[in-house]
Amino acid sequence: MSAPSPTVSALRSLLAARFPEKTRRSSCGVPAGIRQVDDALGGGLPAGRLTELVSATPSSGGQTIIASLLAATQAARQRIALVDGSDGFAPEAVPADLLRHLVWVRCRGPEHAFAVADILVRDGNYAAIVLDLRGCPERALRRTPASTWYRLQRAAEGGSVAMLVQTQAAIVPAVPWRLVLGTPFSMSQATEPRQSVADRLGVQADRSHEQAIEEMAG
Fold this sequence. Notes:
There is one protein chain. By secondary structure, this protein is an alpha/beta fold. It has one domain: P-loop containing nucleotide triphosphate hydrolases (Rossmann fold, 3-Layer(aba) Sandwich), CATH 3.40.50. The termini are far apart.
């Protein structure tokens, strides 16, 4: 296994200095703040698990999901991290006060993003981590070794962190919860209030909450 890059090592040192003691949290999950998403997941993003959210186009609502999650975690006084695999997050589209509890890591591609996500999920100071791989080359993502996903799943397993993996196509192996965002929004809807847009999100659950529980128990 190769040595961590200087950037990843610096991130590990920064986290250790900023958060010397880990905050204890309930492991019941993190509401996303969008009814369709929370209902599909049985109440919110499950703690200790990876959840995949597939949005095939930039206008499917992926940014709306992040904004709602920022609002929900802020209201609950929780920290959230965004691992931005292709530097595609648009902070100017989110109210500035929703960014104060966010750690945003702008990455140089999938390999860097996976390394950072692995550090953050083990850090234990976040209620939710978003690993946003939208915009990364799909060919490169499909070449990601299964062991990389397995390591990330094992790091999250049993912990208090809920991890949301945003993709443009279903790529996360053996994920218990996969949601697919439906019909893209039109340009005219871009100026509407965030909650109004969120209320009309089309969310399809490839696996229901009940099916996931039965599979994990079996």
